[in-house]
Amino acid sequence: MPFPRDLIPNRTALERLGLERQWMAVVPLVETERLLRISRTQDLLFAQTSYARLHTIDPETGRILRTIESNRFVTGVTWVDGELWHATWEDDQSEIRRIDPATGAVLDRLEMPAGMGVSGLESDGGELFYAGGGASGTLRAVRRPKSSQP
Length: 150
Prior knowledge:
single chain, mainly beta, 4-stranded antiparallel beta sheet, 1 helix, globular
């Protein structure tokens, strides 16, 4: 359920709190779509939605720069060595994918064994990704492909 307009502070209210330089952005959602999480990678924000969309947001202005559509549910995003990676999980299948941040094209993928889900995605800044295992409570460490490492 969206917030009533009178609950959203205006610029005057923000100035009183010393937040006049802050911004608010509205992520375009349709029907029953929900905003799931916000990730910060390099100089961008990524808003992940329940409809497998990844909105790229300028953190200085709040402007949506582009929307990337995935064919699977996105569970996490990370940026490492200038590359954008996201995790997907749908039904019994999970992948960690390197994607083109401008087009959303899948450039590389790591397929997980059936039943081994990945939820969330972080990088150690080097050769490892870390992801949760959903309800299993497992923390997974997955080696990044050598072809994408410097």
